Amino acid sequence: MKKTALALTLLATTLGVAQPLGGRVFQYSVNSDVNGPYYGTTNIIYFHMPTVAYVNPYLYVQGFMQAIWSIDGWGSGTHQGSTTITIYHNEMLAIDFQNFGDLTKVPGSGPSGPLTNLNIPMQYRAIAFTSAHLPMAIGLPVFANGVTFNNAWNAFSWALPLETGGMMTIELDRRITVFPDHGPGTYVNPGELILIRF
Hints:
Blueprint: E1 4-9, E2 59-63, E3 77-89, E4 93-98, E5 103-105, E6 119-120, E7 122-129, E8 140-144, H1 146-152, E9 158-159, H2 161-164, E10 167-178, E11 187-188, E12 192-197
Antiparallel strand pairs: 1-12, 2-3, 3-10, 4-9, 4-12, 5-6, 5-11, 7-8, 7-10
């Protein structure tokens, strides 16, 4: 069983390599050229005429991985942002979200006194859909903290080409809540999307 883990960090951008997105792409050729007379007394001549198809593995990921908020003003507030990730594939995949959690303040990016909150609470939700836009029975369709979200998406969150139609979309929602004691600075969480090919 082939298991190649492809980690796409959520701080990376989409692949810039052009790939065919219109479905299957065929290349046809012939060989074993036959050309010539056949002498002798044999009345029956056999020609081997095999037909061979090589189906290559295919994986193409399209979407925006990184989410950025710029927050101004005072007091408390909550905001939700969404992104869509599309996966084209012809192999069984395991879809695993890992390392999602609260945002942690980057040291030196702003004041960090004793009354400063160094973590911004985050909640996550991801819903997977087939190519026919039918919801799939994997993942977590409700908002949850990072630990619950990471545990819901794991190496047993499988996507089968027969089920997805070879294309699936994941709608990822992030919800941020900022309180008055979240001071100036940069807050980061290094979430990852991991695809495991079988």
